[in-house]
Amino acid sequence: MIAKTPVEILDPEVAALAAKYDVYEVHKALAARDVANAYPLAKYPEYLPSTEHGSNPGYHGEFDHIEPGTRADPAMPNLKGLPGYTEDCIRYITPRLGSIIKGVQLSKLTAAGLDELALLATQRGVLAFHDQDLKDQGIEKFKEFGNHFGPLHRHPTQSLVMAPRTRRLRSVTSHERKEAHSLTECRYVQWHTDQCHEPQPPAVSMLVALEVPATGGGDTLFCSATRAYDTLSPAMQKFVCTLWSENSSKLISDSSAKIGGPVRRAPVPIAHPVVRVHPTTGQRSLFHNPHFSTDRIHNLKEQENIAIGNFLRNHIENSQDFQCRVRWAEGAVVVYDQRVVFHSATHDYEPGDRRHLLRIT
Ligand SMILES: [Fe+2]
């Protein structure tokens, strides 16, 4: 018997889309595994991942950026003027971090309202909006929202959205790397902020839930980076404020290459301060990403690097008193400020359950 190639056993819906959009690198193997695992057809196939390799992409260097939250009216008249808004719409996930907001549609926000949304995301770290119609508003609407918060980023290694003109939207699916990761790691939780290998990493970002696991799971975890700084002793705060670290996409590039994934550009080292200052609030926050991109802290000896790096990592990982988790539902939209929170995925859902999110950053 001749084994079928991945192309031959592609989900027919995925194959049709690949032909339609002339995508030259569809995620063939993963789509094939979809079929093998009897995943149902995707509800949003146009946003399934493409692992096109390509080249240089989206290393957008330094650019002028006006923080939208600095333009916002602190009274938030546009956000609070949305139809259905009442003070009862908002519930804190924890006193220190995160709000759940029901009863309003983000798609109705004006530009001034998006500025206020950015300010609220900075204040609360993470905002979870339920029952949103944004997922059905189309690519241009996603881009409009994303571009309001800064230039959209094209990721050097991760899956992008398959449909055309969307190479700066990231498709986050249930199967992506989950199985490969489980071969080498006992657990998946990886606290980080996105793309800190860039000279100007993302600011306010969004996740849109297209499909969520029927059996639950796949929550996103958040940890307050401002609390992580505030809870240090004054002596330690003073010390970490002097530190800079080297960041690059080498770790994620190596791990992508290991499973045959794309590496769209060579890793470039970027120095970032270990403590950053928020442009809207002036708040300080820890900026340390050992899982994804922080290679080492400058000017420390080897043993000091290990000790300080481990301390910061443990401080972020083990501080459940300023962490929260967001449970997904279809249509939910999460807005988070990458300068204020770390986040991590969880991989606790069942094989065959599709989790499909769109990240706009
Ligand atoms: Fe992330």
Automatic annotation (TrEMBL):
SUPFAM superfamilies: Clavaminate synthase-like. One of its GO terms (cellular component) is cytoplasm. GO terms for molecular function: 2-oxoglutarate-dependent dioxygenase activity; metal ion binding. Its cofactor is Fe(2+). It comes from the Eukaryota. Keywords: Dioxygenase, Iron, Metal-binding, Oxidoreductase. InterPro entries: AtsK-like (IPR051323), TauD-like_sf (IPR042098), TauD/TfdA-like (IPR003819). Residues 91-361 form the TauD/TfdA-like domain. Belongs to the TfdA dioxygenase family. This is TauD/TfdA-like domain-containing protein. It comes from Exophiala spinifera. The lineage of its organism: Eukaryota, Fungi, Dikarya, Ascomycota, Pezizomycotina.
